[in-house]
Structure formats: structure tokens, C-alpha cells
Amino acid sequence: MQATAIGATATIPLSVQLDELSLLGELASGTEATVLYGSFCGQDVAVKRFKISQSDDLIRFRRELSILASLAGHPNIVPVVAARALPPDYLLVMPLAATTVHAKLYQMGWRPSTVELLQLSLQAAEALTAVHAAGLVHRDLKPSNMLLTGDFCGKQQFVAGISSLWWATAV
Predict the structure, then answer these.
(1) If you compute the radius of gyration of the chain from its CA atoms, what whole number of angstroms results?
(2) Which residues does 130 contact at the CB level (< 8 Å), separation at least 6?
(3) Catalytic residue among 19, 57, 140, 151, which?
(4) Whether residue 140 lies in the annotated active site
(5) What is the average pLDDT value for the chain, to the nearest integer?
(6) What is the number of alpha carbons within 13 Å of residue 57 lying toward its C-beta?
(7) Contact 4/15 with Cβ under 8 angstroms?
(8) What global pTM score does this model have?
(9) Nearest CA to 98 among 90, 88, 108?
């Protein structure tokens, strides 16, 4: 297949096969996609499996892949490490975040210090600045869409996540 060959040479591998992923369970499910927990190349990942039933769904998938690819390399925006842009499965594979701001606050009882709040706010502002500079507007910024990666020298690292760019639209 010519499309598979092209996908394999892209900056982000676009033709990941299901047998390359170890899917271990569901993290979340919505009307447009299901997010699964898994492993890819020895790394814990979140796999967003799109529900494609009509051409608008395929356009939405391609738009999200394009947006995330255009923002690749920003330290506060979750990267796509691989994707499957071929039928029957349309997938985005991203590093698995440790938790969300919402879960850390309300389920784990986290009470951040003023310094931690300022650090997270700065990181979120930097991610939004990159999103806006790309001509996009974020329409669903909330604590449950703000992902936190592991503990970096005693500090949480914010990354704009899966669903946070799901709602980004062109200006």
C-alpha cells in the first residue's frame, strides 16, 4: 500500500499497527472518541481511538492530527508519538499523563502552594500562547483537561492534553 509507505516515513509514524500496541483498558469514552490506556515501544501511552462513521468524523480526526503535529515540540503540549491514519482504525498515540489538575485537587486532596499555582499557571499560559499563535482558539479549558505529567524535581509539569485540543478551532 502506498499510503502505508508514506505514513511510515512521516515525522510522526502514521501507520502504527494494532499489534504494535498493547491496549490495557479504557480511560474515558465520549461521543467522538474512546481513550485507552496502553503501551507502545515500552512507553505507557494514551491511545485515542476515533469513532469514524461519516466524512465529518474523518475530517475532525485529520484536523486534530494536523493541529497536534503543528504544535509538536512545545514542552507544555502533549506530543503525538504515533498515529494510525488508515482505515479501519484511526488512532492518536500520546504519552500517558500521570493525572489531571481536577483529579489531583479533588480526588487526591492536593493543596498546591502559591509557587506551584504560579508555575502551573505560567505553563498553561505558555501552552495557550502557542495554541493562539497557531491561529487556534481553545474552547474547553478546565481542570479535567489540564494534564499533569510526573514529578519533575518536586514540581508538577503541565501539558495541554488530549481533549484540550479536541475543541480547538481555526480563528
Answers:
(1) 16
(2) 71, 74, 76, 77
(3) 140
(4) yes
(5) 80
(6) 14
(7) yes
(8) 0.78
(9) 108
